[in-house]
């Protein structure tokens, strides 16, 4: 048994408790969203990260988020809610977004996590898969050119790694030595297609070889192991060694979204991964190694549950946007002259 206050990696007791708290917050928040959807309050897709909470939390914890626009930058996805929470996102903001409230970051124009907050380093995802690797290549290239000690991290699933945008983005990032960490949440599914149906690689980390970049694979259900791998990758990126690729080995324990009945999944395999639940396993490790006692962890569970319930209730009470607000930020009074290629007659002199 480890002595209380000793270090795992370079994490102390408070860090380990923070990892546990954030993982529980992700699951509790998403469970509440599912309830709200079934009650008819939430419209649109809901993509839960059940069984994948550890990876994004451990990865983001290894970075340097900030609220002043000068920290590391995160390109999140719908299954990387934990990384958002580490970067300062709150359950209240999550509920505001999914419920389409006027108080949300997108002012009710989008009922998902396609939101942006540059001050905290959130770069909202585009819907086409793989494209955020391209966007983040550009963002992190700016970091390198300006000599800033900053890195970017982008999360994606198995399927996105076979898109042209993903390939082009990593090709560019690699060639330009962009300080970008590309995370592949290898949950073994691309919607209803098993990973082995669209790629022959046994590990996505091996794809790094083809791009001339570092690739590592880690148990995505172990937040401390993920933290250690990402901390090393971030150190290499900050030192000028360029783009890093990390595979999080995990499993998607629900369908692609809540509307997916997941009838194509093998029940025995699903049971195997349920037994590897990242929160249950991490809680037991904290107890076995002396980092916490059951009372402390139970208190964290209650604290998170109460906060999530209160935040959901508050978001429900907040207003929807006025219909006229749909036009806000869409039109401008500025008249932009048409480019010369579209003028009649064409005038290359401008």
Summed up:
The protein is 40% helix and 9% strand. By secondary structure, it is of the alpha/beta class.
Spell out the blueprint of helices and strands.
Layout lengths: L12 H26 L15 H8 L11 E3 L5 H6 L4 H8 L32 H16 L5 E6 L6 H12 L4 E7 L2 E2 L2 E2 L12 H5 L2 E6 L3 H16 L5 E6 L17 H8 L3 H11 L5 H24 L33
Parallel strand pairs: 1-2, 2-3, 3-7, 6-7
Antiparallel strand pairs: 4-5
Helix pairs in contact: 1-4, 1-10, 1-11, 2-8, 4-11, 5-6
- Beta strand count: 7
Radius of gyration: 21 Å
How many strands, which pairing sense, and closed or not: the largest β-sheet? 5 strands, parallel
Distance between the termini: 74 Å
**Quaternary status of these chains?**
single chain
Strand portion, in percent? 5-15%
Low-confidence regions: 1-5
Describe the overall structure.
The chain is of the alpha/beta class. It is 40% helix and 9% strand. It contains eleven helices and seven strands. It has helices at 13-38, 54-61, 81-86, 91-98, 131-146, 164-175, 207-211, 223-238, 267-274, 278-288, 294-317; strands at residues 73-75, 152-157, 180-186, 189-190, 193-194, 214-219, 244-249. The strands form two sheets. It has a five-stranded parallel sheet. The longest helix is centred in the first third of the chain and has 26 residues, at 13-38. The protein is globular, with a radius of gyration of 21 Å.
């Amino acid at each position: 048994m480890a002595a209380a206050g000793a270090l795992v990696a370079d994490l102390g007791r408070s860090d380990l408790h923070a990892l546990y708290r954030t993982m529980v917050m992700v699951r509790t928040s998403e469970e509440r969203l599912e309830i709200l959807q079934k009650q008819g309050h939430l419209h649109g897709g809901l993509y839960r990260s059940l069984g994948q909470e550890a990876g994004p939390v451990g990865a983001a914890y290894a970075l340097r988020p900030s609220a002043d626009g000068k920290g590391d930058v995160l390109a999140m996805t719908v299954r990387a809610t934990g990384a958002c929470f580490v970067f300062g996102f709150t359950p209240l903001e999550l509920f505001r977004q999914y419920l389409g409230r006027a108080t949300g970051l997108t002012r009710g124009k989008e009922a998902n996590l396609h939101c942006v907050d540059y001050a905290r380093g959130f770069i909202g995802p585009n819907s086409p898969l793989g494209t955020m690797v391209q966007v983040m290549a550009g963002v992190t290239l700016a970091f390198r050119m300006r000599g800033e000690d900053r890195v970017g991290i982008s999360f994606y699933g198995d399927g996105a790694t076979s898109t042209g945008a993903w390939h082009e983005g990593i090709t560019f990032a690699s060639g330009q030595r962009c300080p970008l960490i590309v995370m592949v949440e290898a949950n073994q599914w691309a919607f209803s297609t098993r990973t082995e149906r669209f790629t022959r690689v046994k590990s996505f980390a091996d794809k790094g070889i083809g791009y001339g970049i570092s690739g590592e694979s880690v148990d995505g259900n172990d937040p401390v192991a993920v933290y250690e791998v990402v901390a090393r990758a971030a150190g290499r990126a900050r030192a000028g060694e360029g783009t890093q690729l990390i595979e999080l080995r995990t499993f998607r324990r629900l369908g692609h979204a809540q509307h997916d009945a997941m009838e194509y999944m093998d029940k025995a395999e699903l049971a195997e991964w349920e037994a590897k639940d990242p929160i249950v396993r991490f809680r037991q490790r904290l107890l076995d190694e002396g980092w916490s006692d059951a009372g402390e962890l139970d208190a964290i569970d209650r604290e998170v549950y109460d906060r999530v319930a209160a935040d959901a209730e508050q978001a429900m009470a907040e207003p929807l946007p006025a219909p006229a607000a749909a036009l806000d930020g869409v039109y401008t009074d500025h008249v932009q002259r048409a480019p010369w290629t579209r003028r009649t007659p064409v005038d290359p002199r401008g």
